[in-house]
Write a structure and sequence with these properties.
It contains 16 helices and 14 strands.
Length: 474
């Protein structure tokens, strides 16, 4: 019996030593996967607490833990409102990661813990906050018509609206005809667009094109690419996701995209130093790194750092009346053009209406002739799925396969974000939520149901006239 007790004591001691060693390892050199998870938790909680006004524990449970990796259920967060910081730790102890709120520029991940550098990277003179008004949408936030009963019934059907829908806004002929919101969300809640941000970022670049400061054919885009094969990469190659740069967009593990978003304070570094895997224009590779490169390129072309920080607001959000839009920067001062724009569903719909009107707003052309056309033109390398302007023609399946109009094009984002634009029907459908891809939800189902519930489209001549409108029509 004594022998058995000795064995048990030895095993218990060994177990304690193993636990201590493991804890020491996690404390001193935590695996990158844990750092990514904590970085993601800190960033998402920070943005939703400080921008959307949601509770930290609700965000941690609903946005971070419920749909994700089981390890995320062991993450704990703390919010320091005095210093505008959020800290996330695995099991409340290990792999700490941080996010910092910087006012008008939202939150940024601070993976190196250098809060001073992150604070100094954002300008001290942010753009002035715009105020919403009660005029009819899109001039203001007012809705004059009662909800369309048929469409409202569709939006109430979870099979059509999709799991964990948070907001749907339907715009017809320039006015909101129906909207619906999930529990805890409203027309005033800013929501993340994830990769829908890429299309907005492209439009910001398009504003510079209108002023002649950049063009589709520009090459030699970064100083570090000089005298390098990457110097041949053109703006058009980046916009079409055909740069030839290697980039791993797999979110299932520590990949280029998660490393860029949550482990590197300078998001530009990784894609800018990526090797070439194909000649420019020859291979389609969906890449969030590409969108961040476009941010850095257009910011450099503005020509003045302070003006670059204010440019999305001054050139796009203010003219469109997107009063809720918060375009976030990385920890070193580059707009996170791949992922991080928060806006209300009304403001996402404004952007969709802007594209439907070919880049014209209130009679003023804000995008060059043909720029929105590039957003609707497929690239050969993507087999017709992606376009020349950071938008999709066929996310998850062709329009024809779903019986949708041929001129439909899309903004889409992680976890079920989408904006469908159908010029021939004068229709915008914004759908925001928390719907992981494993649930196989496809927004084409929602769009097809709405199209079927609408009155028959007008004749071709009237449709063409509608696309030329610069003012929304009731």
């Amino acid at each position: 019996m004594r022998f058995v007790l000795r064995i048990l004591k030895a095993l218990a001691l060994l177990l304690v030593l193993v636990v201590i060693a493991a804890a020491g390892w996690l404390f001193i050199r935590p695996p990158e996967l844990l750092r990514v998870g904590d970085g993601y938790a800190a960033k998402i909680v920070c943005s939703n607490v400080f921008i959307a006004g949601r509770g930290a524990e609700d965000v941690l449970h609903d946005d971070v833990q419920a749909p994700g990796n089981p390890l995320l259920r062991l993450v704990r967060v703390s919010v320091d409102r005095d210093n505008d910081r959020v800290t996330a730790r695995f099991m409340g102890l290990f792999a700490p990661s941080y996010a910092l709120y910087r006012g008008a520029f939202g939150c940024t991940s601070v993976p190196d813990g250098n809060f001073e550098a992150a604070a100094n990277a954002a300008p001290f003179d942010p753009p002035a906050k715009m105020q919403a008004n009660d005029a009819l949408w899109p001039e203001g936030e007012g809705i004059d018509n009662p909800a369309d009963g048929k469409i409202a019934a569709l939006l109430a059907d979870a099979g059509v609206a999709g799991p964990a829908m948070r907001a749907i806004v339907v715009v017809r002929n320039g006015r909101i005809v129906t909207e619906a919101y999930g529990p805890g969300f409203s027309a005033k809640t800013p929501l993340i667009g994830w990769s829908m941000t890429k299309t907005v970022n492209a439009a910001v670049l398009g504003r510079l094109m209108l002023g002649g400061k950049i063009s589709f054919d520009d090459d030699n885009l970064l100083a570090q690419w000089k005298n390098d094969t990457r110097a041949r990469i053109k703006v058009s190659d980046l916009l079409g996701m055909e740069s030839g740069l290697a980039f791993n967009e797999d979110y299932g593990d520590v990949a280029d995209v998660t490393r860029m978003l949550y482990l590197d304070p300078d998001m530009v570094s990784l894609p800018a130093n990526a090797p070439m895997e194909a000649a420019p224009g020859q291979r389609f590779r969906y890449s969030s790194g590409t969108a961040v490169l476009l941010s850095r390129i257009w910011m450099d072309r503005v020509g003045n750092a302070q003006a670059a920080f204010s440019y999305p607001h001054d050139a796009l959000f203010s003219p469109l009346g997107m009063t809720s839009a918060v375009f976030e920067l990385d920890a070193r001062g580059t707009f996170a053009g791949s992922s991080y724009l928060y806006a209300t569903a009304h403001d996402w719909a404004r952007f969709g209406q802007f594209l439907l009107q070919d880049g014209v707003w209130n009679g003023q052309r804000l995008l060059p002739e043909g720029f929105v056309g590039a957003m609707r033109t497929p690239t050969a390398a993507s087999n017709g799925r992606y376009t020349q302007g950071q938008a999709w023609l066929a996310p998850g399946g062709s329009s024809a396969a779903f019986g949708l109009p041929e001129d439909t094009f899309w903004l889409t984002g992680h976890d079920g974000q989408s904006t469908a634009i159908v010029p021939s029907a004068s229709l915008i459908v914004v759908r925001l939520g928390l719907t992981p891809s494993r649930l196989d939800y496809q927004p084409q189902v929602l769009l097809k149901a709405i199209l079927a519930a609408l009155p028959q489209p007008r004749g071709p001549q009237q449709q063409a006239g509608s696309q030329r409108q610069t003012q929304p029509q009731p």
